Amino acid sequence: EAGVAQSPRYKIIEKRQSVAFWCNPISGHATLYWYQQILGQGPKLLIQFQNNGVVDDSQLPKDRFSAERLKGVDSTLKIQPAKLEDSAVYLCASSRGDQETQYFGPGTRLLVL
Amino acid sequence: DQQVKQNSPSLSVQEGRISILNCDYTNSMFDYFLWYKKYPAEGPTFLISISSIKDKNEDGRFTVFLNKSAKHLSLHIVPSQPGDSAVYFCAAANTGFQKLVFGTGTRLLVSP
Fold this sequence. Notes:
The structure holds 2 protein chains of 2 kinds.
Chain A: E1 5-7, E2 10-13, E3 19-24, E4 31-37, E5 44-50, E6 53-56, E7 65-68, E8 75-79, E9 88-95, E10 103-104, E11 108-112
Parallel strand pairs in A: 2-11
Antiparallel strand pairs in A: 1-3, 3-8, 4-5, 4-9, 5-6, 7-8, 9-10, 9-11
Chain B: E1 4-5, E2 10-14, E3 19-25, E4 32-38, E5 45-51, E6 56-59, E7 62-67, E8 72-77, E9 86-93, E10 101-102, E11 106-111
Parallel strand pairs in B: 2-11
Antiparallel strand pairs in B: 1-3, 3-8, 4-5, 4-9, 6-7, 7-8, 9-10, 9-11
């Protein structure tokens, strides 16, 4: 069974630029999560989707971050404009349902200069 | 507000000995706890979990203990192997929401 796929693996941008990350969850997993992991901290949930609907986006900085999950499969997370403090690893995870074990992708490491 | 705390940033253990990783939480609504292991350049991998109705759960070399009155859980690895060297994250959730709250991680180094 293929795992959670993410791209790109690394991205370097300058502040005020925009960036987008892509996630393809495990086939059949209805729930998809985006986490932000800042160096030295644990992952922090940004947004949770159930199929293509948003379940929780309470910690998503909506003035600059947006996410969508069209057709209930792939998802993209966008930052526009980026700030220095957005430098982090962005992890995508998926699970069969919203109370099931979450499986993580390898993450996208973002550096904002 | 750090609801899940791992106060030891690192731990070094010799191969064959026991590794004990600790985690404390403050939110009494948490009733489901998990440990994830993370290798460099990879995403966290689920290791073991425990529900608040239990105080112990075992899976091979890995055992998680939960002390609800102390709001404390620990992960025991016996015997430790060099391949166990990784960062271990404790996570907690209220099963009503299933929103995982992670600790800051403990880096385990198992030396031959």
